[in-house]
């Protein structure tokens, strides 16, 4: 009922390669990338990426949007913590979207941010499936 | 659709005519007895003739399980669609809907309802009468408030409300015990305490309805017009633990912020049946004891703790 993260390859511990499947209207929270490189390629459909500035230390106001763009099929994007934070969404109400993500080094926790206040919260990321097998939580 | 469709393919179960520029779907659909999935997204449907006449009597009314009409030009939900009583999944995303008909409750088997990307301004309480609804998408609309009755959707697992015009949520949202996902971003949720004690005196119909409910006056569908039977079924219980009252449309509204472990402050609106009723959360109530206040606070924070997983997902 929300986008799924499906692990494809763990690169002997050096990276995580995964496929994300986004239903109509599915979007992620605003998140960081735990000091890793993050590459994203659109395999099907379109995804909107909205970049945000890091909130102030004692952030207590609306987060600042830096830019937004719609990534089309086969387009690639890159982000890391020094560039900023982002939210990724499938804004289509008619088409699902599929994206390929490469994270190096791999990470399984990150921070999500409340756009209205800048407050962050650490979350553990989980996989819907790994190497084609459904992951049971 | 080509005439003769049902003669060539009488056993057809899945028909996908998406992206074909279709403006009408006619009688050719009516004689497909095995059709359970009809995908007609990204077409030019929405005018008269989009769906065939006599749909209610056709085998399709019982056999169709999945209907996808997203990306068309529907300005209203076609009444013929509501005859499809076997429907489990309905998508009308990305159309031009301004509202949801109360008769949506006829689709009693509905599990999945996608209405994102329209111009919907309000949600009829009758939407709550769908007992199997698990996944409700209302994102990217113009919705200003959620009726408290929506908390009666006990099967609801996922509720998508992002990018609307909500300033608060009904407190009853905490009652959705099976809710696993709730999206609220992109709503102008109030972040400061708002003391709003507006109260419209109840109508005669409301007063009569309240008496029927609180005094347990027996009635049968044969005693009343159908519209009144429906009205009586939409009664909400006053959350004040000391009051056994019910209300329909007339109530006192107060916004209370529920803290989700110091991370989110969700403005929840709760409704009391009259200004004399003291709020379970109100710190200014004279009659309630500190015990009942803290009980209600606990109940809210337990529910909030469960919901925390939902909001942060």
From TrEMBL, chain A:
Family of this protein: Belongs to the cysteine dioxygenase family.
GO MF annotation list: cysteine dioxygenase activity; ferrous iron binding
Residue positions binding Fe cation: 31, 33, 86
EC code(s) of this entry: 1.13.11.20
Recorded catalytic activity of this chain's protein: L-cysteine + O2 = 3-sulfino-L-alanine + H(+)
Protein name: Cysteine dioxygenase
Keyword field contains Manganese: no
Cross-link 3'-(S-cysteinyl)-tyrosine (Cys-Tyr), where in sequence: 38-103
Keywords assigned by UniProt, alphabetized: Dioxygenase, Iron, Metal-binding, Oxidoreductase, Thioether bond
Function: Catalyzes the oxidation of cysteine to cysteine sulfinic acid with addition of molecular dioxygen.
Annotated source species: Rhipidura dahli
Source lineage: Eukaryota, Metazoa, Chordata, Craniata, Vertebrata
Major enzyme class: oxidoreductase
Gene: Cdo1
Pathway: Organosulfur biosynthesis; taurine biosynthesis; hypotaurine from L-cysteine: step 1/2
Cofactor (UniProt): Fe cation; Ni(2+)
GO terms classed as biological process: L-cysteine catabolic process; taurine biosynthetic process
Transmembrane regions: none
Cofactor info, note text: Binds 1 Fe cation per subunit.
Keyword check for Cell inner membrane: no
From TrEMBL, chain B:
Stretches that traverse the bilayer: none
Compositional bias of kind Low complexity: 281-293
Keywords: Leucine-rich repeat, Repeat
Cited SUPFAM superfamilies: L domain-like (SSF52058)
SMART domains per the UniProt record, alphabetical: LRR_TYP (SM00369)
Keyword Transmembrane helix: no
Segments of this protein annotated with the region Disordered: 281-303
GO cellular component: cytoplasm
Name of this protein: LRC58 protein
Species, as recorded: Rhipidura dahli
């Amino acid at each position: 009922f929300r986008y799924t993260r499906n692990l494809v390859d763990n690169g002997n511990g050096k990276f995580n390669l995964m496929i994300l499947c986004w239903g109509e209207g599915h979007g992620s929270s605003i998140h960081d990338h735990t000091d890793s490189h993050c590459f994203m390629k659109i395999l099907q459909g379109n995804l909107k990426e909205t970049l945000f500035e890091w909130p102030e230390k004692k952030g207590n106001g609306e987060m600042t949007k830096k830019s937004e763009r719609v990534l089309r099929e086969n387009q690639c994007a890159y982000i890391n913590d020094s560039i900023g934070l982002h939210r990724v969404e499938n804004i289509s109400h008619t088409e699902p979207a599929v994206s390929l993500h490469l994270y190096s080094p791999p990470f399984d926790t990150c921070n999500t941010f409340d756009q209205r206040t800048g407050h962050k919260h650490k979350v553990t990321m989980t996989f819907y499936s790994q190497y084609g097998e459904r992951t049971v939580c | 659709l080509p005439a003769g469709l049902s003669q060539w393919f009488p056993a057809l179960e899945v028909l996908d005519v998406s992206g074909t520029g279709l403006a009408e779907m006619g009688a050719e659909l009516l004689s497909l007895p095995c059709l359970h999935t009809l995908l007609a997204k990204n077409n030019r449907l929405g005018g008269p003739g989009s769906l065939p006449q006599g749909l209610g009597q056709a085998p399709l009314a019982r056999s169709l399980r999945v209907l996808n009409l997203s990306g068309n030009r529907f300005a209203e939900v076609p009444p013929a669609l509501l005859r499809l009583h076997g429907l489990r999944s309905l998508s009308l995303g990305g159309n031009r809907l301004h509202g949801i008909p109360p008769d949506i409750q006829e689709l009693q088997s509905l599990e999945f309802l996608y209405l994102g990307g329209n111009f919907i301004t309000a949600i009829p309480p009758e939407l709550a009468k769908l007992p199997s609804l698990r996944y409700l998408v209302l994102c990217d609309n113009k919705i200003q408030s959620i009726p408290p009755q929506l908390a009666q959707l006990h099967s609801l697992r996922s509720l998508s409300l992002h990018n609307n015009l909500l300033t608060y949520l009904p407190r009853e949202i905490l009652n959705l015990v099976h809710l696993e996902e709730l999206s609220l971003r992109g709503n102008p949720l109030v972040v400061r305490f708002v003391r709003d004690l507006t109260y419209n005196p109840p109508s005669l119909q409301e007063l009569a309805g309240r008496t029927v409910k609180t005094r347990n006056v027996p009635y049968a569908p044969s005693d009343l017009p159908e519209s009144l039977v429906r009205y009586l079924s939409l009664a909400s219980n006053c959350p004040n633990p000391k009051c056994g009252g019910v209300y329909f449309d007339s109530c006192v509204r107060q916004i209370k912020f529920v803290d989700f472990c110091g991370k989110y402050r969700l403005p929840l609106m709760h409704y009391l049946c009259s200004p004399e009723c003291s709020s379970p959360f109100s710190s200014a109530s004279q009659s309630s004891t500190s015990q009942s206040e803290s009980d209600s606070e606990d109940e809210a924070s337990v529910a909030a703790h469960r919901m925390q997983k939902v909001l942060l997902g």
